[in-house]
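pinned: reference chain
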Amino acid sequence: MHREEDASSLDGTLVLRLGYDGSAYAGFAEQPTETTVAGEVRRALEVFLRRPIELTCAGRTDAGVHAVGQYVSIPVTADELAVPRSRWMRAFPALLPHDIAVSEVFHAAPGFSARFDARSRTYTYRIATGDAPPLLTRSVTWWHRWPLDVAAMDDAAQRLVGERDFKSFCKTSSAIGRPTHRCVQAVSFARECSLGEECLAFTIRGNAFLHSMVRTIVGTLVEVGCHRREPAWIDEVLAACDRAAAGPTAPACGLCFMDVAYDEGALVRCP
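pinned: its structure tokens
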């Protein structure tokens, strides 16, 4: 178990559902000189398993973005699959920083990938309006202050549903030489109240998302909500295939990776 295993020779896949407060991290993906979520999770797993591991996530989140339903997959041996859920759940709080938590442990077939086997991903972006900023939810909410026309924003958002080229909503450098078509399956707005503080929650589900895509969509929808643009402007932004055509990128703090959908039966809860 001290040597690095060839993933193809391992007996199954361990899959973790985890959440994190992204405030202190330079995103999910590992970076040589930065503190990242993946780096902390990998180190915890390597301490527990006493060997190097390969870790795959369902979707990389940017610096400052949060998650409650991120999934990661790790190829493991039969002995490692035999580790009971109770032991995993006792170990993780001791091995992980206080702002990262594993909420469930699953088993999957050999070769399963949290990224490539995902059917959809869901994100929610939370915005607070009003004269007073949020206090207890300030780290997970964008305080925009000014009122927003939610009906106009919803009109604009519905124009994003379907298979589209989202190049206008992608960070320019990450779109070079890469496909930028994605399928948005559903969008919605709802009022939420947490710890006595109200916010507007925008939820979007799609097969996959580009770098900064959700935050750029939110920044663009806020332009509509402030009546600086009409809902039909979204059609022009999509057609332009140019990041400069869209609105600003909303702050990272309001975005949360909520869930990932997999085929029924792909994941089995660890006994």
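why pinned: The radius of gyration is 20 Å. The longest strand covers residues 181-194.
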